[in-house]
Amino acid sequence: MPAEAPLHVLIAGGGLSGLALAQGLIKDGHTCEIFERDADDTRKIGYYLHMNADGGEALRRCLPEDLFELYAQTSRKTYDRRESVVLNDQLDELSSQPHLGPPNEGDRPHTGVHRRTLRAILRARLGDSFHPGKAITSYQETPDKVTVTLDDGTTADGDVLVGADGIRSAVRRQKLPGTTVIDAGIRGLGVYGRTPLTPGLAAQLPPHLFEGVLIAADRRGSRLLIAVYRPREQAPDAAARIARDVKLELVDDYVMISCSVPPGTVIPPAAQWTDGTPAMLRDAMLAAIEGWHPAARALVRNVDLASIFVIPFGFLEPAPAWEPSRVTLVGDAAHAMLPTLGMGANLALRDAASLLDQLDAASRRETGLVEAIGTYEQGMRDYVYPFMRMTMDHDRQFGGGALEDRGPS
């Protein structure tokens, strides 16, 4: 239903939740501006992204029909199993548990996407609404509007400000100044890379490695995440058939890995990496999985060195309920969590769809604007905070406790 009183929404951050919200706002007849600090899209932000029904159905809600179809066709082929599985170092199954979140059924259930492909789909058609290289640094709120100040000193006005600017959100820092980011370091997983899925490598992999996102672990504390990406349809082909105005990069089949490094390994900050740093990290990962199944070692040994990067994990503790206003938060700005459950991006997208529903209700004058935002925020806290608490017990949550009490043998 078209908006009766369209809103103009300012969005801090051009990540998945901010872009999804922007798509939904435009789809429903509102206007928006997205202010993204990065001037380009070259920064490494991840590869394979597990999608469940929370995230997938949020994309259905926010995207135009053809862009949603493009997402679905460029996502991974359907898993044979819809469970979280933990393996030992010889790649034998230790445990499994159903994926968290709502049922993920149908002829084409949500599985997983290449993050840059999804970002390109979400970025499509935003035109002049998207402002790269500009970051919101502060805001001023009045009963009638929100004014933001950008890092270049200019300002912009809107009806609502949405902080979608990540774990170190400038919007959250002003709105909830008592919130502290808890740095967690590498925590067993955090060095990421892509290994090309050549026919030779595919022949070495046990069949069950193709059945989902898996974690392998040994008794020394080493971990290896394994996620095969083979899309239903190659991205450029799908775009040419479904949405010809959208240009997508070709992404060859790959296996995303994230592997431990031995204790004491010194990982320099990204700005201090040399040409030799990726090879050093690959060798450190191989040392961490010495004696593992040959297929696991092949995945690490054949990693594309140029694809390696590091994510130092951090998280937020659930913030007490706050007074709603014209300024709100979504995604990591509201509830950054450790990646243990693979839920972060899905919950961020769910935020975007839930907030969109409430903003639509306010534009139809079914409720007041601030009241609508408060309804979104309380629903977000009720749904997301239990997952935040689960991820804080990082190791125990892998595979439903399969790694508990697995000290050195």
Task: Name its key features.
single chain, 409 residues, alpha/beta, 5-stranded parallel β-sheet, disordered C terminus
What does the secondary structure layout of this molecule look like, with pairings?
Blueprint: E1 8-12, H1 16-27, E2 31-36, E3 48-50, H2 53-62, H3 65-74, E4 83-87, E5 93-98, E6 112-114, H4 115-123, E7 130-132, E8 136-141, E9 146-150, E10 155-158, E11 160-163, H5 170-175, E12 181-185, E13 191-196, H6 199-204, E14 214-217, E15 223-229, H7 235-242, E16 254-259, H8 277-288, H9 294-301, E17 309-310, E18 313-316, E19 327-329, H10 332-335, H11 344-363, H12 369-392
Parallel strand pairs: 1-2, 1-11, 2-7, 4-14, 11-19
Antiparallel strand pairs: 3-6, 4-5, 8-9, 9-10, 12-18, 13-16, 13-17, 14-15, 15-16
Helix pairs in contact: 1-2, 1-4, 1-11, 2-11, 3-4, 3-7, 11-12
Note the main sheet. Answer: 7 strands, mixed
The total of beta strands comes to 19
Low-confidence stretches: 395-409
The CATH class is identified as: Alpha Beta
Whole-angstrom Rg: 21 Å
Mean pLDDT over the full residue set: 90
* CATH homologous superfamily grouping: FAD/NAD(P)-binding domain
- The percent range for strand residues is 15-25%
Q: Overall 3D geometry?
A: globular
Spatial ordering of strands, largest sheet: 5-4-14-15-16-13-17
CATH topology: FAD/NAD(P)-binding domain
Give the class from helix and strand content and strand pairing.
alpha/beta
Please bin the fraction of helical residues. Answer: 25-40%
What's the end-to-end separation, in Å? 61 Å
- The CATH architecture can be given as 3-Layer(bba) Sandwich
Number of helices: 12
Whole-number total of structural domains: 1
